[in-house]
Design goal:
There is one protein chain. By secondary structure, this protein is mainly α. The chain is globular and about 50 Å long.
Length: 99
C-alpha cells in the first residue's frame, strides 16, 4: 500500500491507539485478553474500544468544513457524545443541501 492510500482515520490515531489495535488483533479480538494485558477491568477496556470506534467513525465522516471539524474535535475531546455529534452533522448536512 502506498502512503497516499492509507485511510485518513488511520493517520489520525495516536501511537497508543495504534498499539491498542495491534494488541486487539493479536488477541484475536478478545477484550478479556486485552484487559489482562492492560491490567484493567473488562468494562474499562470496552470503554477504551468504544472511544476508539467513535474516533474512527467521526474521522470517516470528515468533510473539509469548519463546522464539521469543530463537531469532530469536540467529540474527540469527549466534550460531545457521538449520538449528539451525529445529530448535529445530519442537521448541518440537511441545511447545507437545502441551500
Amino acid at each position: 500500500m502506498n502512503i497516499d492510500q492509507i485511510p485518513r482515520w488511520l493517520t489520525e490515531l495516536s501511537e497508543d491507539e495504534l498499539h491498542f489495535i495491534k494488541l486487539f488483533v493479536l488477541a484475536s479480538g478478545s477484550l478479556k485478553e486485552l484487559a489482562k494485558h492492560y491490567e484493567i477491568t473488562y468494562p474499562t477496556i470496552r470503554l477504551k474500544l468504544d472511544r476508539l470506534i467513535q474516533k474512527i467513525e467521526i474521522s470517516d465522516q470528515h468533510q473539509p468544513d469548519g463546522m464539521i471539524d469543530l463537531i469532530k474535535e469536540l467529540t474527540l475531546q469527549n466534550k460531545l457524545d457521538l449520538a449528539t455529534a451525529k445529530q448535529l452533522l445530519e442537521m448541518y448536512e440537511k441545511e447545507d443541501n437545502s441551500k
